[in-house]
Design goal:
mainly alpha; 33% helix; globular
């Protein structure tokens, strides 16, 4: 837990050792320090642009990065952002978990609301709690294991 917290603090305050790394590697390094590096295609470009522009107040945390890293990751996210129908709408507060496609995939009949409150899950944003391969961008329904 301490290592994770240290990693989050490092990423949150711009302590980056990602110099020279490709944008995807930087994205994974910086963002996955605190949560999975969500696949860029899960949000439209406008949402990613707003998120990258407000890292100082990233859902209640300071996830600031140096200007060059912010610009590089932001440009990469823009080119990789979702353009297909399911992500054409910008979700409320740019939250993946509030997008129409997410809510449809996790409807109450399949994922009871109390699941999100379990200590082993924590919140709907903790994809890895149920999707064992989420960190690799694999959200296959075959691999879902809802923890108790």
């Amino acid at each position: 837990m301490g290592l994770l917290a240290a990693s989050c603090l490092g990423a949150a305050h711009g302590a980056s050792s990602s110099a020279g790394a490709a944008p995807l590697a930087k994205y994974q390094q910086e963002c996955a320090a605190c949560h999975i590096a969500y696949p860029a295609g899960m949000l439209p470009a406008a949402s990613w642009q707003r998120l990258m522009g407000t890292l100082g107040k990233h859902y209640g945390a300071d996830a600031s990065l140096d200007e060059a890293t912010t610009r590089e990751i932001g440009a990469w996210l823009k080119t990789q952002a979702g353009t297909y129908k399911r992500v054409s709408e910008e979700p409320p507060q740019d939250r993946i978990t509030k997008s129409a496609w997410f809510l449809q995939k996790h409807r109450a009949g399949e994922v009871p609301p109390e699941v999100w409150k379990r200590a082993s899950v924590g919140s709907a944003a903790n994809c890895g709690a149920c999707h064992g391969n989420a960190a690799q961008g694999n959200f296959s329904e075959r691999d879902i294991r809802i923890p108790k």
